[in-house]
């Protein structure tokens, strides 16, 4: 088979994906025809609870939920429960630097101990193999960082490099070549939108163990883009351009595509995972049937754990279906640590990277012949699922309420969906049946050529990004010490983030650009209260 030719060049994950996709095409064939509701649902259950049970909604409950999640029309006072963006999981205790580092407020004492162990694992600095601490070795050989926390600093977002000396560890480049450049058959390519860069794989690792060349260094340069606001005020945006310097393994493929990604904030992820799939799909309008200029498409991704296609929820293009899957991908590609989902000890090295493949790995019988055993992955995922969203501030401030009205009037809620109610989950009480306010529809939107990375990912096109949740965004300065926003951190404040909106969000952006200065200030004040 043609496909075989490229298999040895790819990492374990992709090999499995390629092997598995054709078999599963029959299952997902109806999706191609637009029957999005047939995506297999609810595969995200906490793996630690083997008998995960979702209690179905009663008709009466569904009616009640439709009522509480309907968009408000009253901006004279805060809505009920608006102070609690994560429902009972909302944390009210800590503002400031640690505001994102607190467990779900409704967590039992016993589970909090697991959370603390997970916290330790999230911060743990992995070492090269062999080392005296067998439970902590296996780093790399190629990697971007030695721990999760290095990128998700204080459980918040990362940032682009701020100077030539800043090595920008909290962001990386995803790599690939267009699928037409590969030999895969057309049917497979429908689902796999790109192939990994043949020599470098699907992510640029800028660090390596000694004796093994690193893959290269991301370089970013900015060009000023002037924008005039309606009242004549001049604003300057910065448009980035990316390249890779110091390539360790020869030139990139001539068609290589680079996708810059800043590490996102880590709060409320378990709640986003617990939003019923049907409620997300109900918001999708792939062909813009309602003619409002906003489509919204669900990504469909291969889930390594469930061995099936599922709704994509995590990652900046919704390229991962579950918190556990995304965490295993991070161990594999970002740190070079094997788990049961990516068992190869060599991490993300390709067949062309022989020194990397030949280096000792940390797979050890004490860890199920892996570098990180299932308990390590489970506890890390449990932690990632349970970082609490901080309480809203100033919800009843008249300026915040006015800004909230602007947010609705400008059409921001067409993508930044204010409210959902999560599933009833018997074994995941922290996430169970909560009214949440994430301000995302979890869908992909065409944001225009200005923001495009030109690199498709599963069903996402090179122009599309997943609507990011806005909860907690007002705490960015306090937690992360900066206000760099958007997928690559190009926006230096909230207004710049809005002014970059294009594509489906053009009308929204223009409303903000042209609105009276006081309304715009109120809108920003509302965002800062989230
Ligand atoms: C080198 C930097 C880096 C390291 C190290 C890192 N991450 Fe991430 N993380 C990212 C980036 C960038 C993304 C967005 C990925 C994408 O768009 O595909 C991300 C996304 C995530 C997400 C999805 C969040 C969302 O809102 O969709 C989770 C969960 C996550 N990481 C967990 C982890 C865990 C657990 C570890 C450690 C095992 C880890 N990360 C290590 C950079 C990093
Ligand atoms: C068509 C859908 C859509 C509409 C309408 C929309 N957004 Fe967004 N928004 C997105 C997407 C997608 C992104 C991520 C883009 C990226 O990272 O390149 C985003 C990013 C953002 C961010 C940065 C978030 C972060 O974590 O970096 C802010 C702030 C924001 N939007 C606010 C608004 C406001 C305010 C409005 C209304 C004026 C609005 N958006 C309208 C889809 C939309």
UniProtKB/TrEMBL annotation:
Residues 398-530 form the Cytochrome c domain. Residues 1-35 form the signal peptide. Keywords: Heme, Iron, Metal-binding, Signal. One of its GO terms (molecular function) is heme binding. The keyword Phosphoprotein does not apply. This is CxxC motif-containing protein (DUF1111 family).
């Amino acid at each position: 088979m043609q496909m075989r030719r490229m298999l040895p060049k790819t990492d374990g994950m992709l090999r499995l994906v390629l092997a598995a996709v054709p078999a599963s095409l029959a299952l997902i064939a109806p999706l191609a025809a637009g029957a999005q509701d047939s995506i297999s649902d609810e595969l995200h259950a906490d793996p630690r609870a083997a008998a995960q049970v979702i209690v179905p909604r009663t008709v009466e409950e569904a009616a009640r939920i439709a009522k509480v999640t309907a968009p408000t029309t009253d901006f004279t006072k805060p809505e009920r429960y608006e102070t609690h963006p994560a429902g009972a999981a909302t944390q009210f205790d800590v503002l400031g630097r640690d505001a994102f580092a607190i467990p779900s407020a409704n967590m039992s004492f016993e589970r909090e101990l697991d959370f603390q162990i997970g916290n330790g694992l999230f911060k743990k600095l992995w070492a090269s193999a062999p080392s005296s601490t067998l439970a902590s070795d296996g780093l790399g050989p190629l990697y971007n960082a030695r721990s999760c926390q290095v990128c998700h600093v204080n459980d918040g977002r990362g940032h682009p490099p701020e100077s030539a000396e800043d090595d920008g560890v909290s962001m990386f480049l995803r790599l690939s070549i267009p699928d037409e450049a590969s030999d895969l058959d057309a049917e497979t390519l429908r689902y796999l939108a790109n192939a990994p860069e043949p020599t470098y794989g699907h992510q640029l690792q800028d660090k390596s163990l000694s004796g093994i060349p690193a893959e290269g260094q991301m370089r970013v340069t900015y060009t000023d883009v002037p924008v005039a606001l309606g009242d004549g005020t001049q604003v300057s945006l910065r448009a980035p351009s990316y390249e890779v310097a110091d390539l360790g393994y020869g030139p990139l493929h001539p068609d290589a595509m680079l996708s810059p990604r800043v590490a996102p904030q880590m709060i409320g992820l378990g709640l986003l995972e617990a939003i019923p799939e049907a409620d997300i799909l109900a918001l999708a309008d792939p062909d813009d049937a309602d003619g409002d200029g906003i489509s919204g498409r669900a990504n469909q991704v291969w889930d390594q754990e469930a061995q099936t296609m599922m709704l994509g929820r995590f990652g900046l293009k919704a390229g991962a279906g579950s918190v556990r899957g995304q965490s295993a991908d991070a161990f594999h590609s970002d740190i070079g640590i094997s788990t049961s989902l990516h068992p190869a000890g060599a991490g993300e090295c390709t067949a062309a990277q022989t020194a990397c493949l030949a280096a000792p790995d940390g797979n050890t019988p004490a860890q199920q012949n892996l570098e990180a055993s299932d308990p390590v992955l489970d506890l890390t995922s449990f932690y990632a699922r349970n970082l609490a969203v901080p309480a809203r501030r100033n919800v009843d401030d008249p300026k915040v309420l006015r800004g909230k009205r602007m947010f609705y009037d400008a059409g921001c809620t067409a993508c930044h969906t204010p409210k959902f109610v999560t599933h009833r989950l018997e074994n995941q009480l922290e996430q169970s049946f909560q009214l949440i306010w994430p301000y995302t529809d979890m869908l992909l939107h065409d944001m225009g050529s200005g923001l495009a990375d030109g690199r498709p990912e599963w069903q996402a096109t090179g122009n599309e990004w997943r609507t990011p949740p806005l909860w907690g965004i007002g705490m960015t300065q306090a937690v992360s010490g900066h206000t760099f926003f958007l997928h690559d951190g190009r926006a230096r404040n909230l207004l710049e983030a809005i002014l970059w909106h294009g594509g489906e969000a053009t009308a929204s952006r223009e409303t903000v650009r042209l609105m009276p200065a006081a309304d715009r200030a109120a809108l920003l004040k509302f965002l800062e209260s989230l």
